[in-house]
Design brief:
The chain is built from two helices and six strands, in the order H-E-E-H-E-E-E-E. The chain is of the alpha+beta class.
Length: 134
């Protein structure tokens, strides 16, 4: 499993493996990420969903992915953290893989859900980008 970005460390997110290669993100809510109203900004949930779906796919294929499309539904922005995000793969055809992800609050309530399409990159995880990679 790849490490996590400094962005995720900054917002208080950790990544770990679940069962059968499943990737799980956990977000401990920090005051600096809350809106003035004390709610979670939608961009935090979209980032969680994008990363958890992409990471789940990358773990399966052992190659980095890039987002082609991401459709998100938001259900609740109240601060009921910590939040947990889990992704699953729903379709695969060569270098294009589709997945779904959900973010749940501390009580198991659905707060956001996404479906996305991702492209598998040519390089292996951990290798530097080259101009010939697509």
């Amino acid at each position: 499993m790849r490490g996590q970005s400094s962005f995720f460390e900054h917002i208080g997110c950790t990544k770990h493996k679940g069962r059968e290669g499943e990737i799980i993100l956990t977000l401990q809510v920090r005051p600096e990420i809350l809106s003035a109203e004390g709610t979670i900004p939608p961009g935090i949930f979209s980032s969680l969903l994008d990363i958890v779906i992409g990471s789940t796919i990358a773990e399966l294929v052992q190659k980095p992915t890039t987002t082609v499309n991401l459709n998100i539904n938001y259900f609740d922005f109240t601060n009921c953290g910590p939040f947990t995000a889990v992704g699953t793969i729903i379709w695969r055809n060569g270098k294009v893989i589709a997945g779904e992800g959900s973010v749940m609050d501390r009580d198991g309530n659905l707060t956001a859900r996404a479906a996305g399409t991702f492209k598998v990159m040519n390089r292996s995880i951990g290798r530097q980008r080259h101009d010939t990679d697509n």
